[in-house]
Design brief:
Blueprint (H helix, E strand, L loop, with lengths): L1 H17 L4 H22 L10 H13 L9 H27 L27 H17 L1 H12 L4 H8 L3 H29 L1
Helix pairs in contact: 1-2, 2-3, 2-4, 3-4, 4-5, 5-6, 5-8, 6-8, 7-8
Length: 205
Amino acid sequence: MERRQADSDVTALLARFRQGDHAAEAVLFPLVYAELRRIAARHMRRERPGHSLQPTALVNEAYLRLIGQRAPPWQNRAHFFALASGVMREILIDHARRRRAAKRGDGKAPIRLDDPFRPVAVADGLTDDHLETLLAIDQALTQLADLDPRQTRIVELRFFAGMTSKEIAEVLDISDRTVEREWATARAWLYTRLRPMVDDDAKAR
């Protein structure tokens, strides 16, 4: 009951903020911080140890980008956290691209695919030499978005934001069963797309 009330409070505050009540923002941040921190920590677990960005900094930058929009696009609590996860991923991808440019092409990092049923998990345990891995995943998701934007959103929300099928269904306004079916389809497509990269890396060793 308390959790549902808290969720309702966040949704109400988000609605007030969208309508121009900026006083709601002062109340909103403490209520959403813990969940934003959890999402940021999940993203950071897939980064190299010693990343210059820390979860707190990632939370703050993502939050400022979200509330700084002239016309906030969120519809409710779940949608807000889904958007926050997407912004965090964009921040980390931009950071990885800058690092790759700074390295000036010092070599291509190996891409691992330890679990064929979780193809996007190749990003797990990134080290300083695994920038290409993160960017390869981003490229694959971008290609999937051209084919099926909804499946891409499901991957982002399920894998990166850690949302349940029920939460994703709420964000996308579809059924739980549709989420599960399209999640399976997207995993298979990503595995097919990333598998050649893994095979090439294995041959090169």
